[in-house]
């Protein structure tokens, strides 16, 4: 299908704006990945130049998107490419605009009620399910990032009924990781709804504490299931291992965000407040391990990690640990904070926007 889009864009004048977005976006990522992976200086420069050219074409195409769009699979794919690009360009509000439209189209196409694919399902159904899953994941993550109500409500979705079977019920590592990502996204949405929405903030501290404990129980259970993926150690390559390590950082960051809602003014939860600091420290330590695992390889993987694990959703551990340093004068955490700041500086140098 992608080859067909490329042929239409490069050898025809009848291509759609959505095809141009798909081709320009995917090629920009492919060239950037090749540039980061190659050791040849001239080859790297050529790949980077091609990537920048495709990014410029993508930005132009995105700026011309109409307000009213036809509800088609191609439109939905183009919006996901645009939202992903906006996230990586540190423009979450722009990403929210596109993912909001994507959720509208996915519901118009009834993707939220399609049965989960299995081994007997055709390729098209697997692609459609994956696209809706990505729409769901981005919608929930950006909801928490921007403090807005999610566009996709869980009680309207039947496509993810198989998630209740847990991660181990699926065989493929990729399927397990997709299931994990959807489950984390669901908890991100519930965290906003139950702890950070306007109605949740107005609740009594005792009620918010109870909700926080329930969310944490679900999150820790999910983390335990994620660790079971590493049992198949021989099946995991370097990228798979880094991917799971990055997901663990995301889970710990979400746990920190949940624990932050427990106010220290309550004597009964004073220990929980200190536990928040412990989880935040573990997240920063996990971040350090991720950086150590990534750096010997290529900068493209490092940039992906920073974009999606640190910038895509709120990375509360850094704030929690930094505030603890100011309050207690304990400087033992400064080493991990220094690594965190250095990584963000690297990201800013690469993309000043």
Automatic annotation (TrEMBL):
<dbReference type="InterPro" id="IPR007219">
    <property type="entry name" value="XnlR_reg_dom"/>
</dbReference>
<dbReference type="GO" id="GO:0003677">
    <property type="term" value="F:DNA binding"/>
</dbReference>
<dbReference type="GO" id="GO:0008270">
    <property type="term" value="F:zinc ion binding"/>
</dbReference>
<dbReference type="GO" id="GO:0006351">
    <property type="term" value="P:DNA-templated transcription"/>
</dbReference>
<feature type="domain" description="Xylanolytic transcriptional activator regulatory">
    <location>
        <begin position="66"/>
        <end position="158"/>
    </location>
</feature>
<keyword id="KW-0539">Nucleus</keyword>
<dbReference type="InterPro" id="IPR050987">
    <property type="entry name" value="AtrR-like"/>
</dbReference>
<dbReference type="Pfam" id="PF04082">
    <property type="entry name" value="Fungal_trans"/>
</dbReference>
<dbReference type="GO" id="GO:0003700">
    <property type="term" value="F:DNA-binding transcription factor activity"/>
</dbReference>
<protein>
    <recommendedName>
        <fullName>Xylanolytic transcriptional activator regulatory domain-containing protein</fullName>
    </recommendedName>
</protein>
């Amino acid at each position: 299908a992608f080859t067909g889009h490329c042929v239409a864009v490069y050898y025809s004048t009848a291509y759609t704006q959505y095809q141009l977005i798909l081709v320009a976006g995917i090629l920009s990522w492919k060239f950037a990945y090749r540039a980061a992976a190659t050791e040849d200086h001239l080859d790297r420069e050529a790949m980077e130049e091609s990537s920048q050219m495709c990014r410029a074409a993508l930005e132009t195409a995105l700026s011309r998107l109409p307000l009213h769009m036809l509800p088609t699979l191609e439109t939905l794919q183009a919006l996901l490419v645009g939202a992903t690009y906006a996230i990586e360009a540190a423009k979450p509000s722009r990403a929210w605009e596109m993912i909001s439209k994507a959720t509208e189209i996915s519901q118009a196409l009834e993707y939220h009620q399609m049965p989960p694919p299995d081994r007997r399902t055709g390729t098209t159904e697997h692609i459609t399910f994956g696209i809706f899953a990505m729409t769901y994941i981005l919608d929930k993550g950006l909801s928490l990032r921007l403090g807005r109500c999610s566009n996709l409500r869980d009680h309207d979705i039947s496509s993810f009924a198989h998630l209740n079977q847990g991660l181990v019920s699926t065989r493929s590592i990729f399927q397990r990781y997709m299931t994990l990502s959807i489950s984390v996204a669901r908890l991100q949405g519930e965290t906003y709804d139950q702890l950070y929405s306007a109605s949740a903030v107005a609740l009594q501290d005792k009620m918010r504490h109870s909700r926080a404990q329930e969310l944490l129980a679900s999150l820790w259970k999910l983390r335990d299931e994620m660790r079971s993926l590493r049992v198949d150690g021989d099946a995991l390559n370097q990228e798979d291992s880094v991917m799971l390590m990055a997901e663990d950082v995301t889970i710990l960051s979400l746990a920190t965000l949940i624990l932050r809602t427990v106010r220290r003014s309550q004597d009964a939860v004073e220990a929980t407040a200190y536990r928040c600091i412990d989880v935040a420290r573990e997240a920063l330590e996990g971040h350090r391990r991720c950086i150590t695992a990534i750096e010997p390889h290529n900068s493209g993987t490092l940039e992906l990690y920073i974009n999606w694990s640190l910038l895509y959703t709120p990375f509360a551990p850094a704030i929690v640990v930094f505030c603890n340093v100011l309050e207690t004068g304990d400087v033992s955490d400064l080493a991990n904070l220094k690594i965190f700041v250095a990584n963000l500086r690297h990201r800013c140098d690469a993309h000043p926007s």
